[in-house]
Amino acid sequence: MTSYSFKMLRVLDLTVVDYNGSIPSHIIEVVLLRYLALSSNWLLTSIPVSRNWNLQTLIIREDINGVCQLPRGMWELPQLRHLELYHQLIPMYTPEVAQVNLQTMYWLQCVQCTKQVLLRIPNVKELGVIAQGCDCHRCLNDLNCLNKLEKLKVQGSYCPIKLLQPYTFPQNLKEITFAKTLLPWEAMNVMSMLPKLEVLKLKNHACLGQDWKLSVERGFPELKLLLISVMDLKHWELGDYVDVHPFPKLERLVLRNCFELKEMPRWIENLSNLKSVQLEHCHASLVTSARVIEEEQRECYREEYGFQILEFHTIQSDEDQHSTLTQVSLPLCHSFAEDNDEDITNVFLEARRLDILNDHNPECWSWSRVSGYDEVAVLLDVFWLEIKGTLDTKFLHKMTSYSAYLIFKLKPDAKRLATAFTSVRYIRDKRSYSENRRSQVFLTKKRFSSNDPGQFRKCRHDWWLEIKLGDFFISSTNEGEVEIRLWNTTPYTKSGLIVKGIEVRPSYLIKKKINGITPT
């Protein structure tokens, strides 16, 4: 096939192609693309994106061999409508001209959510924001610049985000998703006043606290779908002076992994448009109370007016719930008591307690002792590198954000270990792995700039290296087990990694009262 055959390409999707060398020259010549999807931002160094003036869609998937800087010219593409970048990419430079055709933007770093940037994308209808770090608590203050915004996703990092008055959010919003944002439940009063909001999804401790008091009359006037997943919600009540019930048009309610909610609020029976209540990994008493309301509705309003209960993986009781968890004896250390009134626990998972793929195969891994007592795993030769650890949240403190770190060393002749992917998730939350984006870590590189994306290794005081694998938040210690995972499945042999274990330590402690409840 000649290079001329590719010059007329309009659509090019390379997301399933792994390029490790130079890409063919006839692909480099494409300049008439309208749709471009890449498996790695590294390919942007070879494909002349800025010369494709008709490009409308640019998608860059998660990559393991990316570059830290994006080439200039991205914002100058006049026809660009859909831009989706893996959220660990370094933020692009501020656009010099307004991108009036851009309608979809995933993901903006929180430092980019300024008026200067948002005014350059005035017609965006879909926006994703990554709020990493506790300095991002006011990253949503300027969203009112986007008058046409209809869909918003905010991915936090278990550090609290604050919301201002309702005018912070564009009034045309129809769908909002919060995850890991630790918003106070009072912030939902702001959401309840959005006149066109139809879908609200609260995931993975999007809100913090056990009490949600609905204090706005006829709040959420157009909401049709409400999803609450992995939340510590225990009391869900109407405010004292609310006479007109909220959620007048709610059709579907999904409660997933809400372990503390034991009873369905009675005001649910007044939702005449409710068609289904989906309960996943919730307490049996919650299901029972929901069925009572369902039966009462059917008796009063006939069969066609009642809502349907969809039940999945019910938790029978607190005792049954804890009996299914793996009991592990863990060595604890208490080195994080700095400036805290209470002793906060670190947990160390030794290499022997980890699930290391093929660690019993002497051709893949060997085991040795260092310092006379620490047993470590030494990578000899594998294609598929995978290390997993699980931890019961009962060993940890409530109302605390934790970070997991791999403790390791590299042999001088280590091979193919430059990068890897990581994830941290609740095992009980079956959907969290597919929904949450994985993180990228650089095992052999050092951070040269604070703007470099991804996680880089650091040297510890004991001369071992550590690298952050991810974060999770403990609200009630009722979340079950957490899975911590690192992997690299590129089709090359890897060697030279020495694994000491995984350390879990607090990164943020919620100390103030939330909804009248003091964390313990």
Task: Write a brief caption for the model.
The protein has 520 residues and is mainly beta. The chain is 9% helix and 32% strand.
**Runs with pLDDT <50, length 5+?**
318-343, 432-436, 511-520
Q: Approximately how much helix is present in the residues?
A: under 10%
Structural class: mainly beta
Mean pLDDT: 79
Overall geometry: globular
Q: For this structure, what is the CATH homologous superfamily of the largest domain? A: Ribonuclease Inhibitor
Strand line-up in the sheet with most strands: 1-2-3-4-5-6-7-8-10-13-15-16-17
Question: How many individual β-strands?
Answer: 31
How many DSSP helices? 7
Strand content: 25-35%
Q: Quickly give the CATH architecture of the largest domain.
A: Alpha-Beta Horseshoe
- What is the count of distinct domains? 2
> N- to C-terminal separation?
68 Å
Radius of gyration: 25 Å
CATH class (first level) name of the largest domain: Alpha Beta
Biggest sheet overview: 13 strands, parallel
- The CATH topology of the largest domain is given as Leucine-rich repeat, LRR (right-handed beta-alpha superhelix)
